[in-house]
Amino acid sequence: MAVDAPEMTGEALRAQTIEWLREALPADWIEAIDADDNAAWSKLRAGLDYGEWCTRFGNSGYATPTWPKEYGAGLSLSPVEAKHVNEVLNHYKVPRPFNIIGIGMGGPTLITWGSEEQKTKLLPGLATNQEIWCQLFSEPSAGSDVAGLSTRAVRDGDEWIVSGQKVWTTLAHIARWGMLVARTDPDVPKHEGLTYFVLDMQAPGVDVRPLVQITGDAEFNEVFMEDVRIPDSMRVGPEGEGWRVAVTTLMNERVALSGAGSLSGDSVGGSAVERLLARHTGIADPRMRQRLAQVYIDGKLIRWNNQRAADRRKRGAEAGPEGSITKLMQAEYNQRLQKLAIDLEGAGGMAWEGAGLMGTGDGNPAWVSTDSDSERDIARGFLRAQANTIEGGTSNIMRNILGERVLGLPKEPDNSRDLPWKDVPRST
Ligand SMILES: Cc1cc2nc3c(=O)[nH]c(=O)nc-3n(C[C@H](O)[C@H](O)[C@H](O)COP(=O)(O)OP(=O)(O)OC[C@H]3O[C@@H](n4cnc5c(N)ncnc54)[C@H](O)[C@@H]3O)c2cc1C
Questions:
Q1: What is the CA(239)–ligand 1 centre distance, in A?
Q2: What topology is assigned to 257-393 in CATH?
Q3: Across residues 56-76, what is the average pLDDT?
Q4: How far is the CA of 232 from the centre of ligand 1 (A)?
Q5: 162 lines ligand 1 (CB under 6 A)
Q6: pLDDT attached to residue 355
Q7: Residue 390 Cβ contacting ligand 1 at under 6 Å
Q8: pTM to 2 decimals?
Q9: Mutate which of 211, 217, 334, 391 to test ligand 1's pocket (most atoms within 8 Å of Cβ)?
Q10: Which of 8, 69, 86, 191 could pair with 76 in a Cys bridge, judged by C-beta atoms 3.0 to 4.6 Å apart?
Q11: Which helix (H) or strand (E) holds 222?
């Protein structure tokens, strides 16, 4: 079933979403949630075939409701309409695809900059979770200053030949496609000589090596590319305009990481404070009560700021620098929240019975399996949250963006900005 009526009310959209869920989810799922029967719901959730569900969900359009319907992976809803759908999906604890980089960043970038052929070919696989995407931006010498990157792409007829190294590439070990920014002209200033591609991660010459992080998971990787061939049909946007395309990806990344419908497995749950309260009923310590009240307030502020940004997008604007406000707030908020969760846990947050911290072992990121509130997951959440103020741009960089692009302060000095990239001093 598709959402066809061009101007449906929020109520009608909600009703239509519930009707679809009733048909698509296992019998009694909706009833279990309506009856607040967590045990019944948990049993149904455990029996659900996640891969099969993601395919059905993606094909229905409900997984990516704002994407254009004509590519077979969306409902063409406005952000405000989609909010009604998403609220229903959240309420009924609908499992979401973990393709967060692809859905949160790759899809919106393709929708803005991609060719018709690219959208038709790539959007459905993204929405159904069948084709996982990764983001090949950061390099060992280009993280915050990503425009200074060195990976080279040289044109050879209808193809490009790419060589270089990326790092911290989340999900690259299971990704089918990668959003790649490479240098195509070293003779012009750094922002002007970049081009954006979609890289086939299975192409000859791509070598992915996992990196183990503090949680014991290996969510991210080093990616080496040696004479990898990319057809020109997989170039996204014009040659030399890669920075503008990358900014679209980065703006959407900040939205995805800001808690606005974030799929991140870092937070203690959608209604974090309620879950903490349920776990630690009747907290007597006034300092803990104060911290709980603070995270409750902070969570509300982030939600309202996200709402403001969504309203701006509703008026037709692309994701803009205001995403940096909530990216910054969400990263620091989640670290406070996770610290509180582990402090409330006491000794149980440091040592527990059963499995250690190591990931799921099936190549999927550990957040896929972190529905529970076990001590292990709380410890893991605390450790994972340390990355929040680095990934997707550090908090320092978010403050720079806010200073310059929201408050209108002077740009920070950058001596290399106007030099041809090849003349910028760098360590080799
Ligand atoms: C969990 C995780 C997942 C990631 N996933 C991906 C991914 O999938 N794809 C990808 O491309 N990248 C990914 N990254 C990389 C991430 O984007 C970079 O780590 C981040 O942009 C910082 O770059 P850097 O590590 O090179 O640090 P640097 O840029 O070297 O920064 C070091 C320190 O200097 C500060 N600093 C640097 N420049 C400035 C400045 N101009 N003003 C003020 N302070 C400054 C920084 O804030 C930081 O404290 C991931 C990182 C993490 C932690």
A1: 26
A2: Butyryl-CoA Dehydrogenase, subunit A; domain 3 (1.20.140)
A3: 95
A4: 29
A5: no
A6: 63
A7: yes
A8: 0.89
A9: 391
A10: 69
A11: strand 220-231
Q: Residue 182: its pLDDT value, please?
A: 98
Mean pLDDT of 377-406: 91
What is the Cβ-side half-sphere exposure of residue 159, based on CA atoms within 13 angstroms? Answer: 10
Q: What are 154-164's pLDDT values in tens digits? A: 999 999 999 99
pLDDT in tens, 249-265: 998 887 777 654 333 33
Predicted confidence (pLDDT) per residue in 174-191, tens digit: 999 999 999 999 999 999
Percent composition of the chain: helix, strand, coil (DSSP 3-state, to 5): 50, 15, 40
For ligand 1, the distance from its centroid to the CA atom of residue 81, given in whole angstroms, is 34
Task: Tell me the CA–centroid distance for residue 389 and ligand 1, in Å.
Answer: 9
Could you identify the residue written with the tokens 């997989």?
A: 234
For the segment(s) 133-241, the CATH number from 3.40.50.720, 3.90.550.10, 2.40.110.10, 2.60.120.380 is 2.40.110.10
The 8-class DSSP code of residue 193 comes to S
pLDDT at position 50: 92
Are 120 and 74 in contact by the 8 Å Cβ rule? The answer is no
Q: Is 215 in the pocket of ligand 1 (CB under 6 A)?
A: no
Task: Tell whether ligand 1 has an atom less than 6 A from the beta carbon of residue 126.
Answer: no
Of all atoms in ligand 1, which is nearest to the CA of residue 384? 1
